[in-house]
Amino acid sequence: DVKVTQSSRYLVKRTGEKVFLECVQDMDHENMFWYRQDPGLGLRLIYFSYDVKMKEKGDIPEGYSVSREKKERFSLILESASTNQTSMYLCASSFVTAPAFFGQGTRLTVV
Amino acid sequence: SQKIEQNSEALNIQEGKTATLTCNYTNYSPAYLQWYRQDPGRGPVFLLLIRENEKEKRKERLKVTFDTTLKQSLFHITASQPADSATYLCALGDDKIIFGKGTRLHILP
Question: Of A28, B29, B40, B101, which is most buried by a Cβ count within 10 Å?
Fold first, then answer.
C-alpha cells in the first residue's frame, strides 16, 4: 500500500516560531503537495513539487516555504508562525497525471 | 482563475436510494477529473478518475460522468448505505491538483 507519512498528528507552536512540517512518501512519486484545510474553505494548495529541488506556488503560498532535497521527502516551513496559520495541514503525493495519496494530516495550533 | 464548484450544502439521502453529487468547473479544460472521499479528521481518499475522452466510469456502486461541454461531472452512489456518509471532493489538475470545497453527504437509515 502507498504510504504518505506526516511527522506529527498534532502540533502546538507559539506565535513567531519557525515551524517545520515533514512529509515522507514511499512510492517513488514525482509530485508532492502541501494543502491546508479550513472549515468552509476546503482544501487549498500551498505549494507543490514535481521533482527534487523543484517547487511551484499554489494558491496561498504567503507565509510558507518548502524544501525538497530528496524525492521521498517534502517539508513545509512556516517562517514565523502566526495565529491565522492554525489549520489542518495535509501532504499528498502522486505520479504525474495520477491520483493523489494523502497523509493523515497535521493539526497545527498557533498560540 | 480556475474555479471548482460543488454543492455547498449538505445532501441528505434515504438509505437504499441513489445519491448524486455535482461538480462544475470554469476557466479550465482538464484532461481528467477525480473524486475523493474524506471522513472527519482524516485525509481524502481517492475513489475514481475519469479522463476527458471517457463519458462514464464505474466502480462497484459508484459511477462518474464527465461532460466537457457542460464543464460538469456527476458522481453517483447507488444503493446508498449509512457508511457512505462522508464529504466527497471533486479535483482537477494535471500536475497542480486543486479541489472543490466538497459536498457533505448524509445517508439516513
Answer: B101
For all residues of chain B together, what is the average pLDDT? 93
Residue A57 confidence (pLDDT): 95
Residues linked to residue B75 through DSSP beta bridges, in sequence order: B21, B64
Check B100 against A31: CB less than 8 A apart. no
Q: What distance in Å separates the CA atoms of residue B57 and residue B107, rounded to the nearest whole number?
A: 23
Start-to-end Cα distance in chain A = 36
Q: What is the DSSP letter of B94?
A: S
Q: Any idea how long chain B is?
A: 109
Question: Is residue A30 left, alpha or beta, with left meaning phi > 0 and alpha meaning psi from -120 to 50?
Answer: alpha
Interface check for A40 against chain B (CB to CB < 8 A): the answer is: yes
Contact between A58 and B96 using a beta-carbon 8 Å cutoff: yes
Place B96 in a pLDDT band, splitting at 50, 70 and 90. confident
| C-alpha cell belonging to residue A12 | 502546538
Residue A69: pLDDT above 90? Answer: yes
